[in-house]
Amino acid sequence: QQQVKQSPQSLIVQKGGISIINCAYENTAFDYFPWYQQFPGKGPALLIAIRPDVSEKKEGRFTISFNKSAKQFSLHIMDSQPGDSATYFCAATNTGGFKTIFGAGTRLFVKA
Amino acid sequence: DTAVSQTPKYLVTQMGNDKSIKCEQNLGHDTMYWYKQDSKKFLKIMFSYNNKELIINETVPNRFSPKSPDKAHLNLHINSLELGDSAVYFCASRQGSNTGELFFGEGSRLTVL
Fold it and tell me: Positive or negative, the Cα torsion across B110, B56, A92, B70?
């Protein structure tokens, strides 16, 4: 069963717009929440990550918002660019760190 | 130098055959993984080894057998291939149990005809 639920499945955004991807988790034993970016023909690569003691983390145009009580977290991409077009995965890692579970992925297309 | 390298990148084979995928990492990490990505892009964890010891086995059919000859290598052998095994298989590594970054290889696309 899927323990990390991600939405939307796909997203089309105009260049310069804001892309928002949402995730919800079920297992309270998760304590690390990364986002991965995957381009066609490549492996996923870490984009940004957050731990549950922080409500927000920003790196450049990418921001994670984290709501521990609601067990939800989201990725915001500001000033979206065509080069951001990729598949984005939220994930959660269990305490102890050996197991990372991924959401189903969101295919983002940024229109020029 | 590629941090996590997998071979082969592409594999096309007939049902019933046996095939292997090899993975090597030069990052000095203790923990290595196999993930399966299906046609809908869903990434599912299959196995994990820490210091050559199997620590995660996610109800994968026993036709799949991972082997870790040393910390830097994790291979995947698949017996009696089925159509449903067609997918992209990703190797990844992480330093120990640190809840940090997973480093992925570029994937091995397996097509079973």
Answer: negative
The sign of the dihedral angle between the CA atoms of A18, A23, A24, A30 is negative
Cα separation, B93 vs B20, whole angstroms: 19
Strands (DSSP E) found in A15-85: 19-25, 30-38, 45-50, 56-59, 62-67, 72-77
Name every chain A residue with its beta carbon within 8 A of the beta carbon of B35.
102
| pLDDT tens sequence across A29-87 | 888 999 999 999 999 999 999 998 999 999 999 999 999 999 999 999 999 999 999 99
Question: For B107, which of A43, A87, A105 is closest by C-beta distance?
Answer: A43
Q: Which stretches of B16-112 are DSSP H helices?
A: none
Q: Is B48 within 8 Å of A99 when comparing Cβ atoms? A: yes
Bridge partners (DSSP) listed for residue B23: B6
Nearest Cα neighbor of A5 from A70, A97, A90, A86 is A90
Is the CB of residue B60 less than 8 Å from the CB of residue B2? Answer: no
Mean pLDDT of B102-111: 97
Instruction: In whole angstroms, give the CA distance from residue B72 to residue B65.
Output: 17
Percent of chain A with pLDDT over 90: 86
